[in-house]
Design a protein that fits this description.
Elements lengths: L7 H5 L7 E5 L13 H14 L7 E2 L22 H17 L4 E6 L5 H14 L7 E6 L7 H4 L13 H10 L28 H4 L13 H24 L8
Parallel strand pairs: 1-2, 1-3, 3-4
Helix pairs in contact: 2-6, 2-8, 3-4, 6-8
Length: 252
């Protein structure tokens, strides 16, 4: 069910255990070869594919295209909500649904920069409603739900999501190849840090002059279809677990 297509009485009449999905993405630079709307386009396709097996059982909010993309602001065209602004936005989106009686909220994320504020937002909402044991608040980034796509497709070069990398470029080649520029001449940009496993504050410009991280030259449309299938299956599996939750317990 699409929230944007329903009347308010139709939404009010829904069972309040209906899971609500709020897709989160971004509009930001993706190197020389990929469109600014990459994250939103890719997550939008995963959500589109997930709707069919979940039809009538999950309420999908419109995709939130503005993300926390401060680390990309050195590159023209990037639009960003500052971290604390974004944190407040997610808090308030969740509170809107809670105020309408919904008890199972799932942020499905498609942009790495949203991860920290997204987790903090659901933590804060949970603390405000700490006396309730019927409220389920989840934040999930689609490529971090357990899939290991290189194990089911051995031609994948990368073993982790980068940025405008083999994985994202492959998915865009499958979804909208007309939007992909010259990726074949893109030299690899290693995403690691000298200080790993410590987390280092960073901007994209200091890590990558062209703005991508990973190995886009290895991308193919066939790999993109495989990645879409794997990631969609993960999202559907998570939402099936949300549907099955007993409404009270920690372990479901």
């Amino acid at each position: 069910m699409d929230l944007a297509e329903l009347s308010w009485p139709a939404v009010a009449a829904l069972p309040k255990d209906t899971p609500v999905v709020i897709p989160l993405a971004a509009l930001e630079q993706h190197g020389h070869h990929m469109p600014l709307f990459t994250d939103s386009l890719l997550l939008g396709e995963i959500i589109r594919r997930a709707k069919e097996p979940l039809a009538g059982r999950v309420l999908f909010a419109p995709l939130m295209w503005l993300g926390n993309s401060e680390h990309h602001l050195d590159f023209a065209g990037t639009l960003s909500a500052a971290p604390r602004t974004y944190l407040n936005l997610l808090n308030e989106l969740a509170e809107n649904f809670v105020s309408h009686g919904f008890r199972r909220l799932v942020f499905v994320n498609g942009h790495g920069g949203n991860d920290v504020p997204g987790r903090q937002a659901i933590f804060e909402v949970r603390q405000r409603h700490r006396t309730r044991d019927d409220l389920l608040l989840l934040f999930a980034t689609y490529w971090s739900l357990g899939a290991r796509p290189w194990e089911s497709n051995s031609v994948l070069h990368q073993h982790a999501m980068g940025h405008a990398c083999e994985w994202e470029t492959s998915m865009m080649l499958r979804l909208a190849p007309q939007l992909v520029g010259d990726f074949r001449t893109a030299a690899p940009v290693e995403p690691g840090s000298f200080f790993t496993p410590a987390f280092r504050g960073w901007t994209t410009r200091e890590r990558s002059a062209p703005g991508y991280l990973g190995s886009p030259a290895f991308a193919t449309a066939d790999k993109g279809e495989h990645l879409f299938s794997v990631f969609t299956a993960d999202v559907v599996a998570l939402l099936e677990r949300v549907i099955r939750w007993d409404g009270r317990s920690w372990h479901g």
